[in-house]
Amino acid sequence: MLKECRPELEEFSLNKLEWLVVDDPVGNSTSKGVVLLVATMASFVFPFMGSAVNIALPRLGEELALDAVTLGWITTAYLLSSAILLVPFGRIADIYGRKKIFTCGIAIFTLASLLSGMANSATMLISCRVLQGIGGAMIAGTAVALLTTVFPANERGKVLGITIAAAYIGLSLGPVLGGLLTQHLGWRSIFFLNVPLGLVVIGFTLLKVRGEWTGAKGERFDFAGSVIYSLGLVALVYGFTLLPAMSGVGLIIGGIIGLAAFVRWEMRTRSPVLDINLFKNSKVFTFSNLAALINYSATFAITFLISLYLQYTKGFNPQNAGLILVAMPAVHAIFSPLAGRLSDRIEPRLIASTGMALTTVGLVLFIFLNEETSLKLIIGNLILIGFGLALFVSPNTNAIMSSAPNTAYGVASATIATMRQVGMVLSMGIAMLMFTLYIGRVQITPEYYSLFQQSMRTAFIIFAVLCFGGIFASLARGKVR
Question: 30-210+273-475: what CATH class?
Answer without folding.
Answer: mainly alpha
